Amino acid sequence: MARELWPHDATTLGASVVPIASSTDIVGARQRGRELASQIGFTGSDLTVIATAISELARNIIEYAKSGEIVLSLAHRGSRMGIQIVARDEGPGIAEVARAVQPGYTTGNGLGLGLPGVRRLMDDFEIASVVGKGTSVTARKWII
Amino acid sequence: MRVPILKQGGILIASIQSALSDEDLLQLRDDLVQQVGKYRSRGAIVDVTVLDVMDSFAVRTLRAIAHMIRQRGAETVIVGIQPEVAFAMVQLGLTLGDVATALDLEEGLAFLGRNPKTGPLHGP
After folding, report:
1. pTM assigned to the model
2. Cβ of B21 and A26 within 8 Å?
3. CB A113 to CB B83 under 8 A?
4. B window 57-96, beta carbon within 8 A of A
5. Which ipTM score applies to this complex?
6. Domain harbouring A31, CATH code
């Protein structure tokens, strides 16, 4: 089993739920994400990329929904391991999900880099949104 | 955490010491833009060496700092962007645009020294 290749038993790492309601929570979420990614076995620029993606997702929550949460956890796919980031809120939702992930799309005061940027940074990217109910973005990055 | 700003000759040096919240970054912007006038500085250096993440807000704010300081007649150099941070910025499509950058504090000081607007040859 691939799991035995890992220096520490990353499979025991639990999910981390980070509430997001203010800009200081953004800093906390990305620091927590960097720690978890490092425990899972990510190194170097991957750690920065993961922390940056978490920062943008947390920023989106505050900008569009005021509050929400980021759930960080270990991801498995076959013998591969990675990190999963789920950013969810009960905000207004996104009417045009397909457009929201296109480069340059924005309705807030950002640079229009939020979701398309995160999609470029990560390996997997899924978004589910219901207008009036909220949005959930799931992004994963795999080791190698 | 408030970013300390040192005055060295005609140059201000803002040396970021830890991860910054959005409010900290905006405070740095306001402090620097104000102190350029107070000390009649010709140049400003923002040292981001310790930042392990520069997301869209950080990049946008650094660009705003440089542009605001330019409106005040001084030049800004951003120094110390780490290789991993540069990588993530490019992946994300973030750019500092026309804002000057240098490898580290030493190079930043050399850059301002060579600049006719801020350099010693044209000093007060």
Report:
1. 0.88
2. yes
3. no
4. 57, 60, 82-85, 87-88, 91-94
5. 0.89
6. 3.30.565.10
Q: Report the C-alpha dihedral over residues B44, B47, B52, B56, rounded to 10 degrees.
A: 10
Mean pLDDT per 10-residue section of chain B, whose length is 124 residues: 93 96 96 96 97 95 97 96 96 92 97 84 45
- Domain range spanning residue A70? 2-142
Residues of B in contact with A121 (CB under 8 A): 88, 91-92
Q: Which phi and psi (to 5°) does residue A14 adopt?
A: -85, 165
Q: Is B22 on the interface with A (CB under 8 A)?
A: yes
The highest-level CATH class for domain B5-119 is alpha beta
Q: Do B23 and A23 touch (CB under 8 A)?
A: yes
pLDDT digits (tens, 9 = 90+) for A92-140: 888 777 777 776 665 554 444 578 889 999 999 999 999 999 999 999 9
Domain tally, chain A: 1
Chain A residue with minimal CA distance to B94? A113
Burial class (CB in 10 A: 0-12, 13-18, 19+), B80: buried
Domain segments of chain B as ranges = 5-119
> In Å, how far is A101's CA from the nearest CA of chain B?
13
Partner residues linked to B75 by β-bridges? B43
Name the residue type at position A103: P
